[in-house]
Each structure stands twice: as C-alpha cells, then as structure tokens.
Design a protein that fits this description.
The chain is built from eleven helices and ten strands. 48% of the residues lie in helices and 17% in strands. The chain has two domains: 3-75, Phosphorylase Kinase, domain 1 (2-Layer Sandwich), CATH 3.30.200; 83-268, Aminoglycoside phosphotransferase (APH), C-terminal lobe (Aminoglycoside 3'-phosphotransferase, Chain: A, domain 2, Alpha-Beta Complex), CATH 3.90.1200.10. Keywords: Kinase, Transferase.
Length: 269
Amino acid sequence: MDVTDLMREWHLNPDGDVIRTFASDVYPVRFQGRAAMLKVSRIEEEARGHLLMVWLDGDGAARVYRHEGDALLMERLLGTPNLTEMVQAGDDDAATRILVRAAQGVHRDRPAPWPELPELRTWFRSLEVAAAGGGDYAAAWDVARALLDDPADVRPLHGDIHHGNVLWSPERGWVVIDPKGLIGDPGYDYANMLCNPSVETALAPGRLERQVDVIVRARGPARPRLLAWLQAYAGLSAAWTLEGGDAAHAARTLEVSRLAAGLLMSAGN
C-alpha cells in the first residue's frame, strides 16, 4: 500500500514536511485531532522495530495508533527537552539515568508473548568478519562471543538506545522510539548508551568511568559485565562504521572498545 492510500484509509492529514532517511520516510500528520508521525520503513530492520513498538503497547514507548506491514502510525513526541542538549549543558549523569530507566522500561516483563525478533548473535556478524584482521577487533569479538555464549536474562531489547531515541512526553515522561528489536542479553542496550551521544563525548577524559558508575548505581548490569558488553559493542559499532567506508571514525570508535578493555582488566586486578 502506498502512502497516499494509507493517508486515505487511516484518515490522516499532512501536518509538515516529510523527513527522509536511508531507512525510512517519516510524515508528520494529524490523526483524530492528535499530532502523530507516520513512519514507512524501507529496510527490514526498521520494519522489525515496528513489531517491538506494537508489543510495548505504549508502556515506556511512544503510543502506536496503527500498524500494517512497513507502516507505523505513532504519537508525535516533543523535541525538547532533549537528552543530547542535556549532556552538552553539563548534566550527563541525569541523561544517563534517564536512558537507564528507559531501557529498564523496555526490559520489563509483560504478559504478552514476545514478538518474533532476531537473536542478538546475528547482529554481531560484522564484528566477526572484522576480527579476521586481528587486533582490537579480534579482542572485541572474543569478548562478544563469550557473552553471546552465556547470556544473562534473555528478553526483548530495544537494540538502539541512545540520546536521540528517548523523547519527552508531557503526559508520561521519557519514552522510547525507533527500536531495532532484538532478543538477547540486556547488557547490550546499556553498552549502546555509553557510546553516545557521540564518540568524542564517550572518549572525554574520565567520562566513561563516571557513566559506568552511574549505570551500575541505577541498577544496571554489574560493572565487569557492563564493561565487557561495552568492549564488544564498541567493536561492533566500529566494524559497522568501517564497512560504511569511514576508517577514521571507525578507529575512534575502536578506542572506546580499547578503553573498556583496559577498565575491565583493571577491575579484575
């Protein structure tokens, strides 16, 4: 079904300019008098994320009004307050605590059966390929493989928790949008947030150690396991960036993996 047909069938009225990305087209619309966003995915992983949004059913996530195939109609959330701006204003700790609560909201037990989502292991293929070159990629893959072989508390994951994917609802507080939708160890979601809102922020002196402490105190994973997931995730992120052709940015992201490895080694001594 094309967008024109969806607009007509779901009784939507355009309410702004379309936002186009490599993965989806997002249309600001009005639905039954409410501000909403119509997201039409162009790639499979975005469409899978719709399944998780439907399963979350507005509990810690943007409310879903309609879903059909690649199309998701959800509530429109505010761009302010903004977690990236919160970090830039010097309130990094508060932003991390909000991200932790958002992740915990996704990870809560729910009575409905889990949606059919890919296992986290499939997400790490790019790191496995990069590991053939040795070095920090190989070290990250060794840690990732150990974590994937012995997961803790397996459940649905957001898959892309960061400062731009947790937005403010005046009625319900901070809620998530745009999940990838995976099944696996929740440690993965916490590692993702530590690499954001930018690699330069992640690498600021003392920042990583402090935000690891914030997550642990907020009842996230234990420090050694969190650092292991961070080493693995940052290696994976670097591998993705390398595949995209940006070797310089991949090298900077790999520094996060190396830093996590050093902190993990220190924690073990």
